[in-house]
Amino acid sequence: MKIKDIFETMEYGPAPESAIEAMDYLKSHNNIFQLFINGEWKAPTSKDYFDSFNPSNKEKLAKISEANEKDVDFAVKAAKEALPEWLNIGAHQRARYLYAIARQIQKHSRLFAVLESLDNGKPIRETRDIDIPLVARHFYHHAGWAQLRDTELKDYKELGVIGQIIPWNFPLLMLSWKIAPALAMGNTLVLKPAEFTSLTALLFADICKQIGLPKGVVNVITGHGTTGAALVNHKDVNKIAFTGSTEVGKIIRRATAGSGKKLSLELGGKSPFIVFEDADLDSVVEGVVDAIWFNQGQVCCAGSRLLVQESIAETLYKKIRKRMESLRIGNSLDKCIDMGAIVAPVQIKTIEELVQQGVDEGCKLWQPSWTCPKDGYFYPPTLFTGVSPSSTIAQEEIFGPVLVAMSFRSHSEAVKLANNTRYGLASSIWTENINLALDIAPQIKAGVVWINCTNVFDAASGFGGYRESGFGREGGKEGLYEYMKPKIHEKFSDKPIIKTPKPIKTSFTEEQPKLGIDRTTKMYIGGKQARPDGGNSTVIKSTHGEYVGEVSAGNRKDIRNAVEAAHASNSWGGMTGHARAQVLYYIAENLEIRKDEFANRIVQMTNVAKSDAVKEVDESIERIYTYAAHADKFDGLVHHTIQRNVTLAMPEALGVMGIVCPNESPLLGFISTVIPAISMGNNVVVIPSETAPFSATDFYQILETSDVPAGTVNIVTGKKDELAQVLAKHDNVDAIWYFGDKAGFKDIEYLSADNMKRTWSNHGKYRDWMDKAQGEGKEFLRHASQIKNIWIPYGA
Ligand code: NDP
After folding, report:
1. 708/385 Cα distance (integer angstroms)
2. Residue range 580-626, pLDDT digits in tens
3. What is the spatial distance between Cα 676 and Cα 233, in angstroms, rounded to a whole number?
């Protein structure tokens, strides 16, 4: 096109970025990439390679190695062997390496940006101005955390060898989100990029070589899902960090169940973009472009559900259609385009099928009048209106440039629609009324809330989901805990810590008073004592085999009733931390009054010396004080993000938690698990000690007399593992803590995959509940809460 033509038509001329440097880089490897293992390029054992294409023009870029199980084994071995020396060099040296990586990424930013755009099809403007600067920022930020590790996180230690699996939508950015914190906390790792987009990860491997990163600290193995699966299943991998589809996330959750591997999952989303009638609509339109057409909508946190207040819906749709008409789509290296290519034909097919389903279900489709280029994998920006909340396209993640719009009338309807999804990754709220925005923000069930902005990211802020969007956070201080474990875990025992019973088998005497042994205890559901559904009871005997009493044998119906009761009650979660603390102090006070009775009950069930039982009650009272103290102190952070935002990291309750108490320490085990969970505002369904349940059933009266709202604590007695499995399978339970044996937690982790509920256990080890360092602390509170990052414009 000539300048004269451009002038006359006012068309944009092409403004291509040069691909020469990137092509030269590919040539430097003869366009064939080996695996990066132990600091060297190594041919795959299978000798199999697959092709990587440029989605903008379907041209082949390079051949990539297919790693098999043997290669995965080599890589994990290299990472394991590199670990001692990597730890030995100390925090400061590790900080220097991270800093060196950041510098190199900046120095080679053009090469990285072009290569990423070639490989993925995303516009060069985005890789140049967003992806690569954020990658460098991630390494700089975590160079700082590496330096501070030994002072700021001194009670924690590295996990060991980390397996990291990343998707194709932000290849280098996801790499940096995974690698930077892992290295900063002293781990070594094996990374598997997505098959469609391995090239920048391989260039990154070259950078690691260039800066002289010790061999084996970072290993990059390429391949398909089977390579990822081999990494997940490798016995020497201590943690899997995964970003990708919810479907594969669930496979990984099940595959790692019971293995003791730590897991963080950043999965799909169907994030709401909520527009209230007083919003600045021109800003909203640009927000929509960033929300759903950034990266062709292939963004896990894309604002793919537009929720608009009815009074302005048609006006906004009109403005959006006008803007869509002016969007430019084309070759990823053209600096003038707004949208690039979709990563691969398979992804286009998925988009087309879901769009067709939207049409078939009666939703109204709108696309711009222009047509897409034919030389690559392109899909036009698409708007659906007339969508009902239950439509497939309103529920399923499309992962393409397809916006689904719905309207609402009231604020509460907006919240209901926003939360009407199995996901909970992100959301954005648009209004000129800060009061309204901050009223809605806490009501949205999502890990990120952007106010009058969208798709903003920074290394200083955590990112991650609620519900089926996965668990764990990447970025921010909260993200570091994903790559560490408390040092105290090394003190855990292989066997339950049980006080030795008094040696002489006694029948009941004055010393062991009879306490209500003539009645069967009921369960405690919705603030009331409830008979078991099955009508059965179980005899409980003491350690010496004496009859102590009978407890109700709960079944799946009782668990379901308890979960329902926990959901029906929302007064506890709505209380301030201060108000919750007052109730907890009251519980402690009431326990103090009945100390002797509770101590006797422990003696009766466990035959320990009275003095030991008294100690257990005393420690329980103290523990309640600890969490009453924390209830208004375990607060969040204000992150120093680089944008003009104040970013609040707020710990929120998880919702309804299942708590499976240890069998040992009948009272203290119950208190140490239930009280931190409720101190954070959760409602709980508790399965108390199976062998010594009466400390929990005696506790009903304390709960009733301490102003604990009905439904906050629900207790179902019976066979621990049977009941725990029902809780783990229940779709309305948000998290489950399991304190018991290895087989038990394996089942819990496996069964929890269905709704991706958070799980926590000691992985078959046992705490000494009497030891404060093991039995209480912030670790419990972290597992009882999740961080929501709220981005508010600030100083703009
Ligand atoms: P996947 O979840 O399949 O892939 C993500 C990563 O996991 C890739 O590296 C993939 O390898 C690997 N992988 C695949 N199967 C396994 C397995 N069984 N065990 C271990 N690792 C595995 O996403 P896709 O790329 O296939 O995309 C499918 C859909 O997922 C998209 O349409 C989109 O809806 C969603 N998605 C969501 C993302 C998000 O960030 N939330 C990101 C990407 C996709 P390989 O690439 O070689 O198959």
Report:
1. 46
2. 999 999 999 999 999 999 999 999 999 999 999 999 999 999 999 99
3. 33
List the end-to-end C-alpha distance of the chain, in Å, as a whole number.
40
370 closest CA partner among 330, 335, 342: 330
What does the pLDDT average to over 102-125? 98
Can you name the residues that pair with 364 across neighbouring β-strands? 385
Pairing type for strands 758-761 and 735-738 reads parallel
The residue whose CA is least distant from atom 27 of ligand 1 is 245
Cβ count within 10 A of residue 606: 27
Which residues, 6+ apart, have CB-to-CB distance to 308 below 8 Å?
Answer: 275, 316, 317, 405, 406, 407, 408
Q: Given 66, 116, 126, 300, which residue is catalytic?
A: 300
Position 299 pLDDT exceeds 60 = yes
**Which of ligand 1's atoms lies nearest the C-alpha of 165?**
9
> Does residue 300 have an active-site annotation?
yes
pLDDT at 700 over 70: yes
Q: State the pLDDT at residue 510.
A: 44
CA pair distance 366, 381, nearest whole angstrom: 9
* Ligand 1 neighbours (beta carbon < 6 A): 165-169, 192, 194-195, 224-225, 228-229, 232, 243-245, 248, 251-252, 267-268, 300, 347, 350, 397, 399
Task: Kindly name the residue from 66, 116, 195, 266 that is annotated as catalytic.
Answer: 266
**Distance of CA 293 from the midpoint of ligand 1 (Å):** 20
Ligand 1 atom nearest the C-alpha of 174 is 40
- Annotation marks residue 592 as catalytic: no
The residue count of the chain comes to 796
Residue 267 Cα to ligand 1 middle (Å): 9
Q: 396 with 239: CB under 8 angstroms?
A: no
The pLDDT of residue 506: 53
CA 428 remoteness from chain centre: 19
Kindly give the number of the ligand 1 atom that is closest to the alpha carbon of 247. Answer: 2
| Mean pLDDT confidence for 397-405 | 98
- Region 735-754: mean pLDDT is 97
